[in-house]
Design brief:
261 residues, 6-stranded antiparallel sheet, alpha+beta
Length: 261
Amino acid sequence: MAAARGHIPSLRVAIGSTASGQPAPKPEVAFLCDGPFELYDPDTGKRVTLGPAREAWRARAAPGSGYEVVDSSGQRRARFTRVLGLRPKDPASHSLIVQRLELAAGTAWSVKGDRQLKGSLELRRAGRRGLALVSVMTLEDYVYGVVNEEMPEKFHPEALKAQAVIARNHALIVKDLWHPHRKHGYDLCDGQHCQVFGGVAGETAKGRRAVDETRGFVLMFNGRLAQAPYSSNCGGHTQDSRETGGWFAAPYLKGVKDAQD
């Protein structure tokens, strides 16, 4: 295991994606920020307008063509055709909240709820179906929102630390090696297709501690990121990677018995 050198990378994560990790466009997006925020052009970084704390705004299709953002009184505050970014003025202290969002669309456990997000959020054109959401955050903020969505908080601290490391590995592998969602403009989805990401609501004190105590650490093999797939149940015995279709013969992915003798 080694600590990653240099800056902490950023990730682009689809929010409210389908069970297969595809975009799930929303006809309208309601959002607010727990502090002052700004709308901006992600291509240039130029600010479009400012918004106040805790005031719900909405993005939707505009009359004629394109999209618009309106404030709580219904006044138009911005118009765009392809993409618009949202971000807190002070991202270290505040975060965005997307309201009444359909989560895990197309699954038996699909629900509607709010999703609180660190970093910035892009509202991206998705044709007549509406807008797709892509959250841009640091790798460490992402792992904060994954650890206890994939492993219960009650597990041993060392298990949580191991989960933090392999979640970090898996995110980077998906982003840099597999890139299944690149054509849609993001690195990972927020569901089981990649890893379950719950945003701020998915974080716990124990989970954050596990991430902080392994900050920047990844598993390496022969100087490269190791692929470290995981699951909630192995049926009593894992399988050699060479025995699975479409995989590869990794010497570190050997089938083992999951029981005490």
